[in-house]
Amino acid sequence: MRIVPFLFLFHLAWSTQAQKLTIELNLSNAEKTLEILNSETTEDKVYHELVQLEATKALIKKLETSDTLLIKALKQTVQNKGLVSGFEQFQYHQIKMEKDSLRSFVSHLKKEGLRLSHRLDQNLSKFLPEEKPVKIELVGILGGNASGYTFGDADKFYLSLHHMGGDLDYLFDFCQHEIFHNIQAIQFDAEHVLEQLKGENAENKDYILFYLVNSLFSEGTATYIDDWENKPLTKANETAKRRNTVNKNRLKSTNYMFDRLIVALEKEPTWEGLNALYRIFFTTQFNEAGYYLGKVITTYTLQAGDNTLLYYLKNPPTLLLLDYFEHAKNDPDAPLKFTERFMEIIRSLHHKVKLTIQGN
């Protein structure tokens, strides 16, 4: 008999008066996908139930695909047709091979949801507004090649459970990174500033520069919170630890490239240039070099100055760079060096961002 999984919205009510951050767990997509793989059904109704889930619609949006292609990819996996060309991005072949361990992992996650919420609240509540508690929905997904993502919402993020290695501690670290992005959106509306700078022109110079500087701040401060260097090595976090080491060893090269490429892009701002620089510094294709660069800027600025991370979260991302410049200018041991032209660009951008905020 087929058991239809329920939409598991785990309302974590534990000590709600004490908690500022509450996690709501949505495992509907994961449970439905595992049900299909376990039963090996080809019944159309079941697949249509899957694609009607909000969580699955988000996966389809992330993969820039369609209901029809997702259903076809999953059906071919169920029918043991192996890894079908063109459907690799869904990763259903891998998920099927690991379905038993993934089912145990999803069950364990449900049991540990309360503890997960409490740990995240302990670590992140100090960055939240005082006036009201925050509830964020963690949507567990099975499918896709991204480990975690959002669509700019401050109250929701998506986590690919098949990339967590069955390790709840690694899942916690990943949740912390993604939720920190949600907190950034709560404290400072960078998306609104980007919209205002962009206007009708996707190649607006200030928009392009702010997009990259905001990415440096966003990922750098989140990576500062991750603190991979001081975490013990596990099978699940091996890739993240290795990436951290690679970026640490090539920090001077990353610093040089970011400086010179921003200067070049400011002279000739194009959408193609923005995409190229984003791929170089903020994707796994190049080991997320900009994440570590931003982390070093964050670490040095916080240690050298009196301002807190919460202070910077409430202000334009350009401010962190300006303060780095100020603290590092007379310090021969500062970890990063920037050219005068790069610093002029950031100062000018900061001024324009402030004017944009004041104009709204």
Task: Write up what this structure looks like.
This protein has a five-stranded mixed β-sheet with strand order 1-2-3-5-4, with helices on both faces. It has 360 residues and is of the alpha/beta class. It has helices at residues 28-39, 44-52, 54-63, 67-78, 92-97, 99-124, 168-187, 190-198, 205-226, 238-249, 251-267, 271-282, 289-304, 309-313, 318-328, 340-358; strands at residues 9-11, 21-26, 134-141, 148-149, 156-160.
Keywords:
360 residues; alpha/beta; five-stranded mixed sheet
Coarse shape: globular
Poorly predicted regions: 1-17
Tally of individual helices? 16
Q: From N to C, what is the helix and strand string? A: EEHHHHHHEEEHHHHHHHHHH
The whole-number mean of residue pLDDT values reads: 91
Report the C-alpha radius of gyration, rounded.
22 Å
- The amount of beta strand, in percent, is 5-15%
Question: Which structural class do the helices and strands define?
Answer: alpha/beta
Report on the biggest sheet: 5 strands, mixed
E-strand count: 5
Distance between the termini: 58 Å
Describe the strand arrangement of the main beta sheet, using strand numbers: 1-2-3-5-4
The percentage helix is 55-70%
